[in-house]
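Case study 2.
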Amino acid sequence: MSQPHPRRGLVLVVTAAVFFGINAGVTRIPIEAGLPVATYTTIRVTFAWLVFFAIAVAFDRSALRRPRGRDFLLVLALGVVGVAFVQWTYNIAIVRLPIGVALLLEYLAPVLVVLWARFVRHERVHPRVWPAIALALVGLALVGQVWGGLELDGIGVLVALTAAVCFAAYFLIGEELTATSAEPLSALQTVVWSFGIGAIVMNVLGGWEGTSALGTTASMLGRLDHLTVPAWLAMTSVVVTGTVVPFFLYLASLRDLSSAKASVIAMLEPVVAVIVGWVWFAESLSPVQTAGVAAVIGGIVLAQTARHTPDDELPPTL
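Prediction:
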């Protein structure tokens, strides 16, 4: 197994989070053009798999080899839970809840990852990870302004919490496959098979209704509402730069970072989404939200300071 390079892992996760955050804005274009959310998710997962498959055929056909034994079961779980369900549940949550609340609940995932690593895997976790998570979660709460007299939909909350579990599973299973397995899968092999399974799931659950909306001309919305693009072009951007690139980068980073650290750094995604909303959609960014952005970044930096840790600084395993 190659030697981990934490700085490389950090760059990969941050880049993935930026792509995902920008995609939050691009996503609005095909959906506002009339594409149903379930169909949007089906198209996103299916065509992302086709891209991954084409890359494997062109550059690394070994990635097409079916994982065996326990690895196949893990890939199956990753495809169902970490690919299909994480997107499907989140898309439902943002329909039933304010997006800030949905994001906050989904980004409880890093807490779940660290709890799993500490109490199920019995891994030593540096004490600084806990205040890092707390600071980042407080920052997300400030960004989402979750105290604003909200009457939350019970089903929406349940689905958002399910999204958090699925997102945590994505990091944990991905780490198991690409880093800690006796014969680790490559990132490309992992995404080819997990997205293929996810595509099957979404084609059964989501369907293809309303795809005619992709044939229309769509407004770019917000400050760019005077410009138009073909809706299919915006959807292509969602598939390539909003799905293929960041999902691959997240999995690739798990060779260099633990799932606990990677999931904390991924909290940068909703911060980027808020900035996109401010710059692109003229959504106001209050002083409180600005403080929240700073808190999330502070939590990420604090998590990274725990990267090199002498054994005697770590708490004992259970």
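Residues 6-313 form one domain.
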